[in-house]
Amino acid sequence: MISNTLRRLALAALLSFTTAVDAVAEDGPAKQLFGAQALPTVGAPQSAGFYAKGCLAGGVALPVDGPAWQVMRLSRNRRWGHPRMIALLERLARDSAAKDGWPGLLVGDISQPRGGPMLTGHASHQVGLDADIWLTPMPKRRFTNDEREKVEATSMLRGDTLYVDPDKWTSSRTALLKRAASYPEVERIFVHPGIKKKLCDSVQGDRGWMAKIRPYWGHYYHFHVRIRCQPGSPNCKPQEPIGADDGCGKSLAWWFTDEPWRKAPEPAKPVKPKVTMLSDLPKACAMILNAPGPKSADEVTYGAGAKVAQPAAAGTPATAYAPEGGDLPEGVPAQ
Ligand SMILES: [Zn+2]
């Protein structure tokens, strides 16, 4: 009978709900809770929420060293991402070394093991779909762990100006950005407005890829690759699609006015900064925080012979974390 079926379904839903509640972490400041995670969750990858307000399940690590990359600042433990992000970094490293004369990538922050807000730096990088890559080429030798902490990246700007130093910028850097933009899963690449201007002034021929290169504050010694929400992440909140415009017109000119660089006026009364709580993130994040992890990072390091969960195929519904309908909260920066 239909009513019996319904009752059974309702009971099943209730049971799974109870299990979920048991696994939910207690509320607290999100950056402290996620910053304390040493390892990811095991299982199918899923990005929950928005680039600047979310978390990551089933993250994998980029190996510390590869044939054409080295990960920097290992102590931060931010070499984690969605497997598609990590695969993309390996591919970019290989392709740019083989085809663009770029000797190898120095990789900065990707995400924390379970994503989420960070104790220092970055508004975004929370869902395993963002990665910073230095504009300094990889040296032939391997850096020591100590060097990976201390070596500084080189600014591409001329002194204190908003313009690229022509002695520092090279065509291989342009080729590296073009290569990164060539992959369909890459949706945006953030660079300093001075670097965008350099491309606008110098790129000949095909300029279609330049629509993905977006000017943003910072990003003068590294660029930031953002990929789109991946299949199997029903809670991943996409960013609005970019247009076809190369972005060299009015929108770029704005960056060379005073407005973006003006200091915010001091408030009359000191305002207490709002702390993002775990309960401000998508509901799935409380489960992801408490879900079981692997025994070691080696088990979940990409391409190192470890058995890493693969993303669900396109169209496959993901069920690991119940979808929740939260909208993007107000005030989330576009980056
Ligand atoms: Zn970044």
From TrEMBL:
Disulfide bonds join C55-C285, C200-C248, C229-C236. SUPFAM superfamilies: Hedgehog/DD-peptidase. Residues 313-335 are annotated as: Disordered. It holds the Pfam family Peptidase_M74. One of its GO terms (cellular component) is outer membrane-bounded periplasmic space. The keyword Electron transport does not apply. GO terms for biological process: proteolysis. It comes from the Bacteria. InterPro entries: Peptidase_M74, Zn_M74/Hedgehog-like. The keyword Acyltransferase does not apply. Residues 313-326 have a biased composition (Low complexity). GO terms for molecular function: metal ion binding; metallopeptidase activity; serine-type endopeptidase activity. Keywords: Disulfide bond, Hydrolase, Metal-binding, Metalloprotease, Periplasm, Protease, Signal, Zinc. Residues 1-25 form the signal peptide. This is Penicillin-insensitive murein endopeptidase. It comes from Phyllobacterium endophyticum.
